Amino acid sequence: MKNTLYKALALVAISIAFISCSNDDNNEASSGNGNLTLKFDNAFGANDLILNTQGNTTSNNEVLKISLVKYIVSNVVLTKADGTTFAYPKSKSYFIADESTAAGQQFKLTDIPAGDYVKVKFGIGVDEDQWKLGAAGQGDFLAQANDAGMLWSWAAGYKFLALEGTFTSANVTTATPFMIHTGKTGTDYNYTEVTVDLPTKALVRDNITPAVHIITDLSKIIDGKNKIKLSDNNAGGMGAMIMGGANLPLITQNISAMFKVDHVHND
């Protein structure tokens, strides 16, 4: 009887080990390729962004109502748990984040080597090697940027980020337009790269497409490490137009700190 019981327990143990190994095998990366989605969720401070109607207050007590936010996401590089990296092909690595459209809030990366990914790096803007309009590697992005209003002009290159709306402050009591556009201005290139850690691994498989949910805190554009008052840039009461000058490099520094990964879905 005792021997029979031992045999039964041994069979149970073997079965559990087999199931465990099978589950581990299912979680291991295959040698094939898969896809991964980057989702950009715009916020202002602790609040999800609502265009046109939401009042967003800065630490300088300026209240912004944002009507437009767009930025170029480029040069995506994924890092695996073992430290190896995969650079997404530049010909496919230019996207325009746009709060006003569903297509502008998530971007699917295809043909990613299967693996467990722990970091994502990306640029905001177009890197200097690729800045020349129509440069090799941009694919059809030039036409896309033109249609989205993300060119200064055909000769002057790309806008990297565009934030527009109206604002009020203690000294500006009537809703007044503001416009912040970054890009190459003079000797300031204003391109920046961001690296974010993933709170859980993104498991790219041929049957799993992870979604990396990135929060973009737009308040940091003028209310980050560098504090910039729109009312100080309200030239002649005609509106705060920041498209160059000393403030633009400060805004670029702020932009590099406005992204974080909220969570990862492995579905």
UniProtKB/TrEMBL annotation:
Key word Acyltransferase present: no
Keyword check for Signal: yes
Ranges in coiled-coil conformation: none
Pfam families in the record: MbnP
PROSITE patterns, alphabetized: PROKAR_LIPOPROTEIN
Stretches assigned to the Copper-binding protein MbnP-like domain: 34-234
Signal peptide segment: 1-22
Record keywords, A-Z: Signal
Official protein name in the record: Copper-binding protein MbnP-like domain-containing protein
Native species: Flavobacterium bizetiae
